[in-house]
Structures are given as C-alpha cells and as structure tokens.
Amino acid sequence: MNNKQENKENRKLNLKNDVIFKAFFGKKGNEKYLIDFLTGLLKINIKEIEIKEEVNLLKLTNDEKGGRLDLQARLDNGNIINIEMQMRDEHNIIERSTVYASKVVSQELNVGNDYAEMPKVIMVNILNFNIFEYKEYVSESMLVLKEHREHEISDIVKYYYIELPKYRKAKADMNNKLDQWLALIDDTDWGKIEMAEEKNKTIKSALDDMEYLTGDAEIKRLAELRESSRIDKWFAMSYGRKQGIKETAKRMLKMNVAMDIIIKATGLTKEELEKIKKENT
Questions:
Q1: What pLDDT does residue 54 have?
Q2: Long-range contacts of 185-191 (CB under 8 A, 24+ apart)
Q3: Is the pLDDT of residue 251 over 50?
Q4: Is residue 236 included in any domain, yes or no?
Q5: Given this model, what pLDDT does residue 34 score?
Q6: Domain that residue 112 falls in
C-alpha cells in the first residue's frame, strides 16, 4: 500500500462532505480543479472561472449554521454555475434546485441585465442517493415542447443531477474526465482513483491538495460538526416520522379499521401494531 492510499484509508473526510467540497473547490488557487471538473461535465472549453466568493472559515461557519452549503461561480462566457453536494435524500432536491435557480435568475435581472443579456444558469446537484429510475448517473434537463421533444424552448436554466450510487455500480470510463473526477468525489474505489490520477495530472495535483485540506484542524472540525448536525437532524426527522405513523395507527385503530389495512397503510409490522394497540387499551 502506497503512502497516498494509506492516508486515504485513514481519512474519514472526503469531497462528499459539503464543507470539504466547498472549502476545496472554493479556495483561491484551486480554480483549475473546478475548471477541469466542469469541462468534463459540460463538455465545453473553459479558460477562466470566477468563484463568487472566496471561501474563508468565518463564512463557511456561517453557511454551515444556515444549513445550505453550495458553491457558485461565473464562467468566462458569463454563465453562472451553482453546485450543491447532497448526502441524504430529503425528498425535495428537485423543488429546492428549481426555487434556488429562480432566485439566481432574479438576482441577475436585478443587477441590470435585460432579458436578451441574461446569462445561463446551470444548477449542478451531486447526490449520494438516486432520484431517477433510469440507469444513467448523469442527467441533464431540457425544456421542450410536448409534441416536439426535439425543440428546446429555452436553455436559460439547466439542471444536472449526478447520482453517485449509480456511478459506483457502473463501468466507469477512466479516460473520461468527468468519470475521473467522480471517482475522486465518490472516494469509494481506490483503483478508480489511481487510474484517474495516472490519466489526469490535475487529479494528481488535487489529491495532494486534498491531503493538505483534510489535515487542516479547523476545516476538519467544521466538517465533523457538519456531519454531526446532519446525523442529529436525520434522527430527529426519523423520530418525527415514526411518531406520525404511530399516531396515524392509533386513529385507525379507534376507527376499527382492519389490522391488515393499517399494516399496509403505515408500513408497521403486526408486532408493532399489536404493541400500539396494547398501549392504548
């Protein structure tokens, strides 16, 4: 095992943690990494990119408290990129992305752009869960006519959804720039990462900078706090859902609904339902 692999095995934090993701891609001097990743995703030539706001620890701390950590940048052609890393499915990613895109468009109009000068807004959602039933792990949206799907009405707002679990299972093409970056972001297959490093010098450099970043005590503390708060939120939501299901079962029992129907409606087991019935008799 080489030193980098050994460091990787001992490292708990990676780019799927949104604090690490934003700190890495939003750091001044790291623009080349974001350019290389977006070149692979958008399949366009990008010479320069301007991060909307350089990441600093105070700003990162405030963002972390606010609950949303995304990265926004402007390409050399004026188009705006907004990237969000989402680890857990809160069943609202499409709605959230749509609402946020409308805010970005509105902001651009407020700064004096008329409709003809509106830059394109590209929303990139990197997900550690699946949302579509299709096998493709990268999905790009288009606004088209129902009767003429080949006709794109507008491309002012584009949405990209990258589903990492599907990428994990797919036979990735490690000659493909996007697949190379997804190997590093997903960080579950060291063989893929090694191949990406061999074929892409920018990935090789990124690995070195990643080791430095995840060794930064303050960044590590923020990332771990972020992960802890997400776990607490998940447990709170999970508890709330369970209590809601329990209350629903109670009401159905009082209405004398058949137990097999309650089990189908709530997902509770027969034993769980029997316990609820016993507690309320």
A1: 59
A2: 185/14, 185/15, 185/16, 185/21, 185/126, 186/16, 187/8, 187/14, 187/15, 187/16, 190/5, 190/8
A3: yes
A4: no
A5: 96
A6: 3-215
